[in-house]
Amino acid sequence: MNDTMHDPHLVPLDPSGWTHVRCPACGSSDVDTSGVVTPGIHMMGDHSCRSCGYEFLLDLPVGFGVQHPMAIGRSDGRLHNPGDGGAWIHGPLLEGFRAPDDRPVRIERIVHRECREVVFLNTLDFLYGHVLLKLFNAHHYLEERPDLGLVLLVPRMFAWMVPEGVAEVWLVDLKLSQLHGWYTDLDRQVREGLAGFGTVFFGKGYAHPDHVPIDIARFTGQQPFPMERFLEEPPHVTFIAREDRLWFRSPLSKFLFRATHPLGLRKLLARLWVSDQDRLMRGTMKAIRREFPGVSFTVAGLGRPGGFGGLAEDLRTLQMDEATERRWCAAYGRSQFVIGLHGSNMLLPTAHAGGCIEVLPYDRYENFVQDVAVRYADVMQLFLYRFVDEFATPRQVARHALSMFRDFRTYYRNNRTNVF
User: Fold this and answer.
1) What single string gives the DSSP state of each residue in 357-378?
2) Which residues are CB-neighbours of 205 under 8 A, at least 6 positions away?
3) pTM above 0.85, yes or no
4) Chain-centroid distance, C-alpha 90
5) Domains of the chain, each with CATH number or no CATH
6) Contact 250, 276 (CB under 8 A)
7) Could you read off the pLDDT of 211-260 as tens digits, one per residue?
């Protein structure tokens, strides 16, 4: 137990093991704790200061609370944000706190094996990529803490990705778009559920876990592309496309697209830019195929299928389900690399494919590589993960793709074969 109490990747439910609590009003560490509230994304200690009497909720160091812990005054509703967390964190938090939702929330509890000592990992979030990244934390606890049963709190749409080996899964019947709320019934059920265990720790739920050791097949059932067979497997490239975030031909094209929103013309005219994105992808495919005629292509992502004819297998759809997710993962797993625009839509593709070429918008430089599940810890990552300008032409993107096929043998020999 001593080793467990000193594990930096665990937070005990028992507040006697907490070292992060100080009163946000006066700074005192002489604080009483009455429990933990879990109304959704956030897990917060419920505290009162013995020195000044201030009552407050304070983020546990889990999820985004690791880097951006926030506190809310119980009586004054004041936000304390010493870590300068962004509005995308504190906005939904405050909104939910000020207008709690008392509706019943269905949680299906699936018990695979009974455990008394557990680590509870909250993966809830209103953004797809955030849930996925938190869920990937499960790998660490399954591998490094087999002495603790892993209990996952997961949105139901991610049930298909729950890895083998967990002790329990708590499936929450809320859509991602609803998970910014403050649900009193969710909090009640989590409290009651945790009370049934002997010892409880909370998993950190790091926002950006190391992807290298993660066995993605444990989550999706799909083996990733075997990098050592890069040139032996049939050449295949998957393009990741979505309609709400686009690859633009030029700064003018992007400006005009953005101008449609305030003018109320987005729905009417958006198809023009989606069609142009299709043309950019087709141009890239044709440029690759001119030099490597045997390359096959797949297009995957949220969008209307059509427009590629016999050039590519088009798996795009507007109706997501488990079967679609698995078809997409199968395409990623047979791809030497994937090509797509920056976003959470690149996480599963890069977790399975051999590498990627990402179109990176200027306003996403701060989020560089956050959406890429880098599979290699050595210099192979410099060769297999490439980033191009947001207005890159099909020829420029194809140039990288051709290099990856043409130069892989030499790069692999120099950096994987002929080394100590």
Assistant:
1) EEEE-GGGGGGTTTT-----SS
2) 62, 63, 66, 121, 122, 123, 134, 137
3) yes
4) 19
5) 13-98 (no CATH), 107-203 (no CATH), 217-417 (3.40.50)
6) no
7) 999 999 999 999 999 999 999 999 999 999 999 999 999 999 999 999 98
